[in-house]
Queue: 2 jobs
Job 1
Amino acid sequence: MGRSGRIDKAEEFQWLFVAEYPAVVRTTYLVLHDPDRAEEIAQDAFVQLLRHWDKVRDYDSPQAWVRRVAIRLAVRDTRRERTRVRLTRGEAVLTSAEAPGTGLDPDLLAAIGSLPTQQRCVVVLFYYEDRPMEEVAEIVGCSTATGWVHLHKARKRLGVLLSEEVSSDVD
Amino acid sequence: MSIDRRLRNGLQDEASGIDPDTHDALALVQTRAVRETRRTRVFQAAAATLVAVLVAILLPLGLDRLGGEDRRITPAAPLGLEGTYVVDVVASAETRRAGVAGRWVVTFAPNGLVDLAAPEGVSGISGGSYSVEGEVMRTSSLVDQPGCQASGRALGTYRWSRVDDGLRFAVVSDDCQARVLLFANQDWERVP
């Protein structure tokens, strides 16, 4: 491939980065509730994307690919954090659950923070990114049916924590 | 308000407070990607060199100890292939997948070693060794390529013949696809 081809590829990556990076940081933040860590993880995901750009740019949705990487890194990070908390015992509450939210509904954010990681990812991708369950499941790395199970369990638990009635149909 | 609506609104509000610096992050990501790619290449080159050295040293010894007539390489008796050849492997889906497309320069040394100069962009190549018995040539070239590392795939056997001043190889037996495409897919032209 010639010089112009390389420039095109680089520009293509830059366009995608500018368009998607803030969204990936926000999504990762909603999973982790740690803005600095969310930025680090989003950057890790985009470094991987750039290193595999020759291949991934031909995929149907490089955006979904980079989200999948970011979500998996966030899940791994959360599990590592849980283990650390378990081992250090003194800190009884997860960082994600105690992070001070900038939003207007701290009870809601604390309740989301208490969900198991997979459920939290599904909730964020489904409600915040407004993605269909097929895409949510692909990003999280489970079947669509399992994605729905995660969502229904999350809604049920959030309903209890927030004293809200939860209808059987997702609105 | 339903729980679903509360979730949508609450997450939107929370996320709206996050405003990362895209410009700085892009520069950081580009720098890190270059650095990590370079680090990986250095590691791969070191690993390939190590494999090539080990293959060149251990393979002839190991095969001799096995004692099997079919698997023995005798580097001291190359008989007739010595020289440097140019091999142009035509680019196709198959040759690209095997990582062999392009111009190769191959030297059969009198001491039984094969030196491979790979096309630009192809790395991690080991030359290996070769032996000749009559019109049959055995070689361990490209033993570190994907799909060629299993114990039964370390050696390829070819029938060779002269074409003008160059060489032509025909596969007798070889499970290493990259080696078959390099050796038997086209004639080899001798470099004067």
Job 2
Amino acid sequence: MGGLPYFPLGLRIGRILMSAAILLAVFPAGSGAAKVTPKEYRVKAVFLFHFAQFVDWPERAFTGPDQNLVIGVLGADPFGDYLDQVVRGEKKRDRPIAVKRFARPEEIESCHILFLAGSEDRDLERNLGGMKDKGVLTVGETDRFTRSGGMVRFFTQGTRIRVKVNLEAVHAADLVVSSKLLRLADIVPPGAKAP
Amino acid sequence: MKFGALPLQQRLMAIMLVTSSAVLLLTCAGFFTHEYLTFRKNMISQLGTVAGIVANNSTAVLAFRDREGAQEILSGLMADPHVASACLYDAEGNLFSTYPEGLEEDRFPASPEADGFRFIPSYLIGFQPVAQDGKRLGTLYVQSDMKAITARLKLYGAVAGLVAAVAFLLAFGLSRSLQRQISGPILTLAETAGRISAHRDYSARARKLEGGEMKILTDAFNHMLTHIQEQIARMELLNSITRAIGERLDVPSILQVMAETLERDLALDFSCVCRYEPAHERVTVSGVGLESAALARRMEMAAGTFIPIDRNGLSRCVQGELIYEPDISEVRFPLPGRLAAQGMRSLVLAPLIVESSVFGVLVAARRSAEAFDSQDCEFLRQLSAHAALASHQARLYGDLQKAYEDLRQSQAAILQQERLSALGQMASGIAHDINNAISPISLYAEFLLSKEDGLTPRGREQLETISHAIEDVAATVSRMKEFYRRREPEISLAPVQLNRCAQQVIELTRASWSDMAQQRGATITIRTDLEAELPLVMSVEGEVREALTNLYLNAFDAMPQGGTMTVRTRSTNAGQVRLEVVDSGVGMDEETLKRCLEPFYTTKGDRGSGLGLPMVYGMAQRHSAMVEIESEPGLGTTFRLIFDLPVGTVSAPKFAAGPGRSLAILVVDDDPLLLKSLRDALKGDGHTVVTANGGQDGMDAVETAVKEGRAFDAVITDLGMPYVDGRKVAAAVKEKSPATPVILLTGWGQRILAEAESPPNVDRVLSKPPKLAQLREAFASLPGLSAGSEQA
């Protein structure tokens, strides 16, 4: 954070506020905070939306050219309505981007990016297995997510939220992740069981 | 030094150099502009490419907010040293990442501006959108310096300067050699013109040049020189003719010179000058060229010939128009017809105009048709104007000469008149004395002739001659007085026997014709051929004798070798009497005959007064006679006086025999001799005479007589006396004795008579010398003295 002293005062205040938000997100037990999406998830929500831009799906992932690109959230939704705000009116090429929320994996029909919330970590392997051949970019945030066959995992490095990509799983699902994204991401070595 | 004052060569070179420099400059400017613009475009394109790549690579770092990644991507710009700075803005427009790292944020725009590239001073800046799959993720800002373009332009400037210098040198060399193409001929022409101007040698010609305008220029120049040469020749000709004309002072020789000179110098085949006579509607040939003279005779146009004015050219010419007939072979009018008949084909008629009236026509002709060009015509017109002017001046000069001559003669006549006037004044005094002096001679001669019985016939004859001579002296004296009188004298004409006068004058002039002729050894024979019973004419005998004396003396003078003079009288049926004096002498030439009656004209040199014949002429005029002169040189002269006969017959005057009674007469005069002669003469007539010497004595005598009661029957008094003159005496007489008649005797008697006014108190005026006969007649006619009214 060598750059911090150079930030203008407003930005510094913002940074302090953001740190507070992260603290709140780390400790969500705080009462009355459910309605305000923490900073961490607002960033992740934006990231989710950006994945739509940097990932290409095979044709079979869509039923028709006009079909929505669906960002799904499985389990307890940490984003509140922020994700809806982010994608509102957005399109990938001609496809409108929509957000769907699923309580159980069985409900998932058409989905292209699926965020598996931490609440579903117990059934992770089963859930991921169910998604294997459906061309869905699976995004998670738990430590073992990529080891368990998930494709993209958010992790926090310092104050930054970064992503880790399991290329093997991505390729297996016939998805193409833009090299620009890959340049920023940590790549899970094939067969490695790194955390 | 102004550009226009530079020599042609330098100007041409300067023009070429300036032109090529301008072209070079414009080319360079265009090149530079193009280079600059192209380079800018290239810069934009290059920077756009770089920015595009960077922006494209920056999508993910912006999307996932990876500042390190962004920093890494931006640092790739280091590869382009001209990119001075760059930065990334996120989708919200916030500064996300900067290059080079660590540059202050305020060096960058606070927020992204409109997409695209533009130049700001010293820099090119650009805002490149950063988007992934159409999704705008942020903006890239790049700033490139212009060092590259400056360096490029410097290089180009150096190259262009070098090229320009080389090109200028090349242009200089080329223009130096190429300008000769244009300046060479012009300079040659200018040099020729300068040489011609300096030496006035208009026979020089410019060297012919080839090609377009240069050829036209030299041709025109040479043509102009030819023209000038011709003009100079014409002017010289005009000058020489004008000078030749100017030397002449009379119109005919001016016209002659003009015709001759024109013929010679203008190479005319025929030239003549005619004078216009508007009254006769014709022209008269006046001057003909020397070569043309023979031709002129053949075509009946020699000098002095008349040519009628035809309706054709000549009539227009005499109205002031210059006529040119290019071909007269078919023209049949009088003038061109005559010329055409002798082979002339072209003709110019130029009017000679003075003060807008034509007085002559210049005729110029040549044997070939259309042989006169407009220059010839113009020349002839000018020459005509000169000649006309010269003629006019010559005429004025002639008039002036004549006026001067008239003036000179008038002056001479006036001088003569003045001289005569003075002479007359003197003559008047002399006349008085002479009259007084001759009065006794006259009186005694008359007295002797009438009273003396013992005279021999010879003595009587001689006395008569004395009497006539005295009469003539008196007449001469009286005429002498006329010299200074302007007015014609009042004369009283009396019947005259011309035959007797003729004979008398022969006697009077005997000395001249006999002695003079004998001295020269020549014999002059006098013949008389007098008509018997010639009628009397009304004249003055003395003047007739004087006239005849002059005529006889002239006749003798005309016969220095001797000869015969005949005096002839004849009466004619026309009621005239002719008296001819014919001599066989040398006669008179025409000029002398014309002028012989002029006063002071004489052929006798100092011997002649020039007054003889004028006197004769004057007498004739006064006596209503005519003068005829016939003369042939070598054959003699006949001088004829023709008198008109008076109506009715005239008889010789009867002299009064004298009063029947004796009168008491007072004679007053200051001349004792006259007193004595008058007293003797009057006493001879039986009168009682008292004489008074002078006016005062006369008045005293009258007074005494009146006192004594024996008034005079008559008083005869002289007019001009010292102290108391005749008028005073007359006044005294009339005062004392009003009835007594007064007879005034005067040397100026004629004059007083002529003035038609008797002086007051005078009953009768008689001129000196007094004649007994006149006195007798006066006594007879005066009231109170006639025989019928005798006093007691």
